Amino acid sequence: MLRVDPGGDEEMMMMGIIKEEEEEDSEEEDEEDDYLLAAAGEAGPEQHPHRPGRRGRRGREEKERTKVRERRRRAVTGRILAGLRRHGNYSLRVRADINEVVAALAREAGWVVLPDGTTFPSSQEEILVAGRDRGIRRTRDHGRLLFPFPPPEDTLHRHPPLLPPPISILILRDPMLTPPHPPLLLRTPQTMLAAAPPIPLSSSAAPVRVAVVSPLAARPISRRAGNAFVAPPRAVPAEGAASPLLAVPVPRDEAEDDDNAMDGGKQTGLATCPAPAVAPPRPPERDFAGTPYVPVYVMLPLNVVSLEGEVVDADALVGQLRVLKAAGVDGVMVDCWWGNVEAHRPQEYNWTGYRRLFHIIRELKLKLQVVMSFHECGGNVGDDVSIPLPDWVIEIGKSNPDIYFTDREGRRNTECLSWGIDKERVLQGRTAVEVYFDFMRSFRVEFDEYFEDGIISEIEVGLGACGELRYPSYAAKHGWKYPGIGEFQCYDRYLQKNLRRAAEARGHTIWARSPDNAGHYNSEPNNTGFFCDGGDYDSYYGRFFLNWYSQVLLDHADRVLMLARLAFEGSAIAVKVSGIHWWYKTASHAAELTAGFYNPCNRDGYAPIAQVLKKHGAALNFTCVELRTMDQHEVFPDALADPEGLVWQVLNAAWDAGIQVASENALPCYDRDGFNKTLENAKPRNDPDGRHLFGFTYLRLCSVLFERPNFTEFERFVRRMHGEAVLDLQA
Prior knowledge:
The protein has an eight-stranded parallel beta barrel with strand order 8-9-10-13-14-15-16-17, surrounded by four helices. The chain has a three-stranded antiparallel beta sheet with strand order 3-6-7, with no helix packed on it. The protein is of the alpha/beta class. α20 packs parallel to α21. The chain contains 21 helices and 17 strands. It is globular, with a radius of gyration of 30 Å. The N terminus is likely disordered. The longest helix is centred in the first third of the chain and has 35 residues.
């Protein structure tokens, strides 16, 4: 019998939990027998003619029994979850089901659990083995090691130390959790012991091997951890904190690493042994040799052209672009900021800085993707500079703040103009779409030679916040934090007037209002009356409002793209759609709804967008193709995010509509895992139609990219996107 010390509150008594489950199961089996006997007694009314109404009573009794069984099952699950949270520091949501519990236990035991439930053992973890029926004690030294202590004499007499099958113990060290994880005890086949010779402790002790699995193995991150990380490097800029938007965990505490180094790998009462870092298991790499050629572009820095019209640090930029060209990169992407070019007066455009930049790019024989950026820069993830809207627009906004998107509390978002003024002449006699068209037409005339020579390969039209087709529903400047659902942005007087007209046309003037129970920026769906399961989002009013809200987005895209097609006739145009993957596993998809994507579980919200793009011959550029659902679940399980499911839905909606699809990463990526995931999305395996992305844009050019390990991975990625062979594929 396995002995577990029940004395401390932090010890999780797994055997007790299993026993309790068995008792509950036996009780449920007894109830099932009663149910079957009752059902047999109702075989026919002729067998009990003297008991009228008995069938109805039995039906009610069966329902009550079913309710009792369900309550007991939920009680058992609740006790298990409470125990795991309290003693094991498992990050399980309140309504976690048994699948999530099993997956969490399997992952801590060293198994790999894929999002679809496929489970297989990892060959990369070391094993700590102790003989069966031996006492096991855990020390509190930061949860790093387990120390076996000599078992009682009677145990040694009953079981010689070499005969009993071993027990495998995996120790997970995670400084982000307090207190540390308790050990998980699992039986291990004898075959697993043959691969690793034991470390002898004494003549009577069972064989023991020790492994310390670092947080890097438990939670994949994008940051290199010295030379201890066996896997290819994963990094983010050293000076920047990880972004909660994409569920990237903060690096482990350096002070704790220093303490570990001072220990010298020694622990009291146990032979000296190293603490090797273990890389997270990954599936075999796919060979992309001979696959279709997908061009790769790199985004230039946001402030590559200054407010004064100069190319910032031109010499250094030329050197970096030459390195990119040598690595096989096809071209670069440049933001043309409305606030830079038409800064002071309407229809006075200063293209000087961009002309100098484009000349440099042409001399290096690189292609150009140009973004018509009609939004301000600053305040969003990855923004390291501030470029506001044109001064003359800001002056208009001071006297008429309704030109901006507005939330329920009346806060204005000055990042971009409200779509309510698309046809309102409030910008010194021009409508918003006329302002956009004049800007695009001026650009087309100014750089005609670059279009004719094919240097400019694509124009990406900015249609909303961050240049993406969406409402600014999750603005950090208004207090939003991941994974909040955001807020509806339709409270300026122009959009409110539009809503009233739509309600009157529907014949329900009472619907001329925005939801009053949709929570706030950082709410969770089930804490609101509108987005919760069975909430108002699926009522008659809710469907009317969400259809109107998303239709405003579609109409805006339709109007601007129609004028963009006129301005850039004969050139490729594209639209970027943001990847809002949090709360994707809920019924309402609340974060997508507030952003304007009417995409609950019973409706495809991206097919209408694809149809609008098809109407104007525009391509779709989608983000977050490098993210894995498993990584999101490891770090922010309560967000119920599913970037892989979202990417698959959007790509298929676009391909089904017959339009081209490009993509980009959501945050800087330097690791092989992120690049491999991008490749998988760019060239789906075994697609019967051979569909693939027509381009990929890498975010973003910076000094960290050119560090040797990072650039080696990037260059390897470019070759594979081009369909070239690489020699270091991991089996």
